[in-house]
Amino acid sequence: MRIKLVAGVAICAALVLVAGAAARPLDGGPNDGGPGFGNGHPRGGPGHGRGAWFNDVCDPNGSGPSDAVCGALVVTDANGDPLASPSPPATAYGPAQFHGAYNLPTTSASAPTIAIVDAYDDPNAESDLGVYDAQYGLPACTTANGCFRKVSQTGTTRYPRSNSGWALEISLDVQTAHEICQNCKILLVEASSSSMTNLGSAVNEAVRLGATVVSNSYGGGESSSDASYDSAYFNHQGVAITVSSGDSGYGVEYPAASRYVTAVGGTTLNLGSGNTYGSESAWSSGGSGCSRYDAKPSWQTDTGCTRRTVADVSADADPNTGAAVYDSVPYSGQHGWYQVGGTSLSSPLIAGVYGLAGNATSVVYGSYPYSHTSSLNDVRSGSNGSCSPAYLCTAGNGFDGPTGLGSPNGLGGF
C-alpha cells in the first residue's frame, strides 16, 4: 500500500503490475479508477534506478479531505499505458515463493478467522479468489464451504457501491491472506466509505464477528484525533491488527502509528534457489519514522523516538518482487492478472502469518515479536530516505524504522 497526503487527503494504495483482458461496466462514481487515471506521465522506471514504470490507478482528489483515497500505482510502459497479459506475470511471486522464502507452513492448527478491512465493494472478491485458488492449486475458500464471508461495516449483506481502485486492493488483501494461511477463514468487511470513522467501524465489526486477526491496507497523515481513534477502533487486546506503514518513503501514517497495532513495513525480497530465502533489504518507498502523537508502547525500547516508532515488522512490498493477483473488476479497460506490491502486500502477508501461528488471542497488541526476535530475519540494508537519528529511515543491525525487527523466519516471531 502506498499512502500519500494531498491537501490533507489520505491515500491508500497498492503498487500494481497490471495484466488483463476485456472490460465490463462498473458502478464506480468518484475515484473509480476509470479511464483518465490509467495513463499519463509515469513515475519510476529503469531511468530512475527502478525496474518498472508505475502510475496512479485512481484520482487522488476524488473524495473529501477526511477520506482515505485509493492511490494504487499501476506498473505501465514508458508512456503510462498499463501492461497486460492473460496469465500471472512471470516475475510475480505466488504461494510457493512466499512460503519457501519465509519458511512457512501452509495451514494453521487452529484455523482462525482473518478479517480484511477495506472501503467500498468488490463485487467479484469471492469469484476472483476462486480463480486464484484454481491457478495455484489451493483449497477452495467459498461461502458455500464456510471459509469465505463478506459483510458490510454493519454486518449485513447490503454492500456499499463498487469502486475499481479499492476492488484491486481487496483482491490483493484477500488472496494474500488466503495464500499464506490456506485453511484460515476469510472475513471481508467493506466500509461504506473510506473515512477513518467508517473504516474503524469496519474493524470493530470484524472483531465483533469473531476475527482474531485483522488486516488494514490503508492510512493517512497523523492528527490530534488519533488518540480518540485508537480507543474507539483499534484497542482490541487479544486480536492481532496489522496495518501497512505506507508507500511514500520516510514518514509516519495513521493507523500504523497506533500503539495497539502491528505496523508492517516493506522490503525487497530476493529469492535463493528453490524459492528459498536469498536476501532482503528495506524497500525504498516503505513508510517509517517517529509518531507525533501516539505514545510509545512499553515493548519499544529504542531511544531515538520518545513516542511510537514505525514499523514493528516487515515483509515483501517492492512491486518488482510483488505478488500475483487476479482481479476481474476492470481498470483502465482491462482486467485479469496483476503484479502487486506496496505495504498493501506486506500487511495481509503478516496477517496470514499471525493466522498460521494461531497465537493472536493471547498476544498483547503488537508486542509478541519483540520478545521473539530470533525467529525473524534481521534486515540490515536499504533506506527509505534521510533522517536523524538514521535508524528511523535506514535498516541496520537489530531494530530499525523501515523494517522493524525484521521479516518472518517461520512462525516463532508471531
Mind explaining what this structure looks like?
With 414 residues, the protein is α/β, with parallel strands linked by helices. The protein has a single domain (94-317, 343-408), classed as 3-Layer(aba) Sandwich (Rossmann fold). The chain contains six helices and 23 strands. The chain has helices at residues 95-101, 125-136, 164-180, 196-208, 226-234, 343-357, and strands at 4-6, 9-12, 15-17, 43-44, 53-56, 68-70, 73-76, 113-119, 148-152, 185-191, 213-216, 220-221, 240-244, 253-254, 262-271, 277-282, 289-295, 307-310, 313-316, 323-331, 334-341, 376-377, 407-408. Strands 8, 9, 10, 11, 13, 15, 16 and 19 form an eight-stranded mixed β-sheet that branches. Helix 3 links the parallel strand 9 (148-152) and strand 10 (185-191). Helix 4 (196-208) runs parallel beside helix 5 (226-234). The longest helix is centred in the middle third of the chain and has 17 residues, at 164-180. The protein is globular, with a radius of gyration of 19 Å. The two termini are 22 Å apart. The relative contact order is 0.19. Mean pLDDT is 87; it is low at 1-39.
